[in-house]
Specification:
Two copies of one chain form a homodimer. Chain A has 164 residues and is mostly helical. Chain A contains seven helices and two strands; from the N terminus they run αααααββαα. Chain A has a two-stranded antiparallel sheet with strand order 1-2. About 7% of the residues of chain A have low confidence. Chain A binds a DNA duplex (30 and 30 nucleotides) through helix 5.
DNA sequence: GGGTAATCGTTGGACATCCCCACGAATCTC
DNA sequence: GAGATTCGTGGGGATGTCCAACGATTACCC
């Protein structure tokens, strides 16, 4: 496993698993991105809209914590999504500092279409694999993913940085 | 495989393979990045230096094509690498438009250390897996990676975008 | 040969992402 | 009630990716 003697530096880099996953991830990213582009959403907008849907009427600070995204960027995403009529910001009567963010019915419909589109993009990503291989891949990736920090004392959830 | 009826939008997104690979890739990326940071290199610099080493005296335009990176960005990387004494830009006598870029012996030594460091970072990334699982993962990822475009007519090589 | 097209390295700038800081308003703590 | 904290929102900077254009040089083609 040490670098072979006719030293091929680039070849070596590109044989590393870290490089391989990176390439596959980039392809998956762009596939999903162009799949949902027709709905007028980019990946972060999609993730935010999904989180708002899932966590009901939710304050922006909660979204920041759950998605581990920047508060400033969230404002921009919400502005866009609200402008498109996919969600609404209302003042929270129980705490007038907060906004209660809720998905509209139009937003819900968009979300359902995006779920279908994302599914299909993943279908294409995994098309070279048969059912058993797909299952094996998911199992291996899951194993790698849910052990991010060996010191599991106060591990940050760090949920959805790259969104899809 | 269609979205389940108690519709969990975020959960659904985060169950997609595209999301899983993305998270694992992000972790691999940062592991390798901090591994080689001690050598004063970031991921793109490392990839460029490796490519220059592998392709001997090479013109910058060739590096642009082989690595699929932007020409402007390459200039910056080369400036940094040349400033650190890891490579040299010389005018190509046979085509005075081109630069002949070559790795110095110092650059070669750095590259060997980085190969070792990258290896170790990948060791840590794959630590939850045993030998058989690692082999299986690499095989699956390779299968996904080398079929980027179904229309293999004039497929772009598109070599090393995210470098490691 | 000579004029046009293409390529070389380089620069400028658009755009998105991520990080830290600061502000006015509202709420919580004691 | 007074001070600390949280809320949403903006400013500004550091990167990373990508496209457009330029002067210099070379290749093409009639």
């Amino acid at each position: 496993m040490t670098p072979p003697e006719p030293f091929r530096a680039l070849e070596h880099i590109q044989s590393l698993p870290s490089w391989l996953v990176g390439r596959v991830a980039a392809r998956g990213r762009s596939l999903v991105a162009e799949a949902i582009a027709g709905e007028g959403l980019k990946l972060p907008h999609h993730a935010v809209l999904a989180a708002v849907f899932e966590y009901g009427p939710v304050a922006q600070a909660d979204l920041v914590r759950r998605l581990s995204i920047d508060a400033k960027d969230l404002v921009g995403f919400l502005n866009h999504l609200e402008g498109a009529g996919l969600l609404v910001r209302e003042p929270d009567p129980r705490d007038r500092r907060k906004n209660a963010v809720t998905v509209t019915t139009k937003g819900t419909r968009t979300l359902r279409r995006c779920a279908e589109l994302g599914e299909r993009a993943n279908e294409e990503l995994l098309s070279p694999l048969d059912a058993a291989e797909r299952q094996a891949l998911i199992a291996l990736l899951t194993k790698l993913h849910q052990v991010p920090s060996p010191d599991a004392d106060h591990a940050q959830p760090d949920a959805a940085r790259q969104e899809d």
